[in-house]
Amino acid sequence: MQLTLEGSALGLRDYWLDFTNNAKLQPRLGQFKLPFNREFLTSTSALQFVDRSIVNEEFQLGRDVGVALRGYLGGDKFEYGIGAFNGSAKNRTNRDRALMYVGRATLNLLGKPSYSQADLDYSEKSTLAVGAAFAFLPNFKPVLEGADDRANLARAVIAAGEDTSDVKQLTLDAFFKSKGFSFEGEYHVRSIGRQEVRTVFTRGNRVANGLRLQAGYFIMPKKFEIALRFAKVDLDSNTGNDVTREITPAFSYYISGHRLKLQADASFFTQQAPGDDLHDRRARTQVQFFF
To answer: What's this model's pTM, rounded to 2 decimal places?
Structure first.
């Protein structure tokens, strides 16, 4: 169980129960992160930037209430997770009896990478993994199900001119670590269309895509890391003037791994708009004490 205290509000973030007697078949039930994109599955306490990217903001599916089956096959070579969820985001009941279906598979080609950014161990043995996930949310209603983690999705459905829509999302990712160097990449595609359209991605639908590439290197082993991230979100591949780009350099000083660290990053955003593009800049610093 995980609780949050933000201001004066006490919130319930996670509550789940695992059955872990068999590594190949591990049922989970409760409220938890959906087995979807790598960046969101990585805890905010284990990032090499102050926070996640604009791609995660747009395409992550957050938490939900449901049941899942997880496990490892072939030792640690293949990791999977599949589940059925309410589809209404965390701390909410199912509003329309339609369920959300999510599945993720990861192939660990070298070693068993954890969901943690930065090569803090300065690994002598390289680790490499590739993953893919798919989500299907039928009968999504922004008015009823667009709260919290689904707010960006609700705005996208409304922008598509739909009050009820079937949503399909696909993500592909890759992860690599070796001798102080780390790399992550993610690609996302999302289709929003009429309920009667049952193909996976239809040309007439509103199709969005996103890309995140980031890399880091320890110039002082296990202590001082520099990193760079590029991210891009295209809200509708059939139209122009809706692409946002992010470039974020960062540095981190790890006093005691991810448990105690000092981080700073500076982001440069470009958003397409009719006429002149919009530009924004953001600088952040943080000290993290995690226990």
So the answer is: 0.91
